[in-house]
Amino acid sequence: MPLLRSSLLPTVLKILKERLAQLVPEKQEEVKKIKKDHGSKVLGNVTVDMVYGGMRGIKGLVWEGSLLDPEEGIRFRGLTIPDCQQQLPSAPSGEEPLPEGLFWLLLTGEVPTSEQAAYLSSEWAARSELPAFIKELLDKAPKTMHPMTQFSLAVTALQSESQFAKVYHEGVHKSKYWEYTYEDSMNLIAKLPNIAGRIYQNTFKDGKVPAISKSADYGQNIATILGFGDNKQFVELMRLYMTIHSDHEGGNVSAHATHLVGSALSDPYLSFASGLNGLAGPLHGLANQEVLRWIMKMRDELGSAEVSDDTIKEYVWKTLKSGQVVPGYGHAVLRKTDPRYTCQREFALKHLPNDPLFKMVSQLYKVVPDVLTEHGKTKNPWPNVDAHSGVLLQHYGLVEQDFYTVLFGVSRSLGVLAQLIWDRALGMPIERPKSVTSADFKRLS
After folding, report:
1. What burial letters (b/e) apply to 78-88, b meaning 16+ CB within 10 Å?
2. Of 27, 98, 210, 399, which one's alpha carbon is 20 to 30 angstroms from that of 62?
3. Which catalytic residues are annotated (predicted)?
4. pTM for this model (two decimals)
């Protein structure tokens, strides 16, 4: 299905927004009924260990877009990753799902048609231009500034463009909050490839930023602006990457931070910037580059030639005995191999089966779970999404590891902003859990 011509955009500009306008009253009534019929039901018990353990397992958030099952993995509005690969629209010449289709699914709970995904591609491309002051801000940022710092800085600075902030100041009725949150979110998502591309080209290349194509989809435009648009496999990788990294229910740091700040009625720009700052932490989105660095260090120490499984096993044990963790393995919720890892592995088996780093990743997949099980200090010895993504990017020449989390952030916008729109539509209140002191725990009987 070719993308919709720009001349047709005015007639379809509000297709997604109009569908949301139909769904919002239905969902509002559904939530009212849930609160009336089930409001007093207990979701679970909270223990002192859970509080000291980072609130692990405490059910305290509503998140419509996705649900993470410990054994099954992530589902987006009920669809697994293989379901999404089969059911969501793909590009005319591609196989992987378009991130546009995933965003439509997250917002509406419905699988879009190819025409609806194409409409989103056109709308995002039409909204993608950066204000001159954002370009100047990024162009003047020192190359020594971390790409994630630049990313957060640019998104925060874009807040001056917020329609929600403007109409809130003017006194708009709260029933309209979601509409302006939608407009801000669409504008922000549309501009992220240009922000990411400018950061990449300024920091690592010659500063020349390719133009967004008004007739290309989101994944194609991201690949193009990074300088890899002629590589069809890399374009497909970007479509897959943006889809699978988009959402992982609401309790992870980037999602929860966006939701928390948004609950204060901060606009989407400020809310998402807070999520990016959380994503930049080494225990969250920064982990993908930490994995790759560990693998490359192992390769350098063991030699570039193929090594045996026993040699890999010895190196893993060496890492554990030195007091370090094996990066990319284990997950706070999952108790099996992350389906996001699996689909990336399948992509690699299809497109780069003989890549030396991929072969090493495959050996680790064979060796590490048994070692971690024998070690006995992890509840989940299986790989997560971070164990694979960096190797794929390296293969195609995107070798600048400090940039990887920026790509993660572009993708994560789809999930957290879709939820923020629903937070506004459902009138979710400011988040304010009760805290206690250690002394209070000592007084418990």
Report:
1. ebbbeebbeeb
2. 98
3. 284, 331, 386
4. 0.93
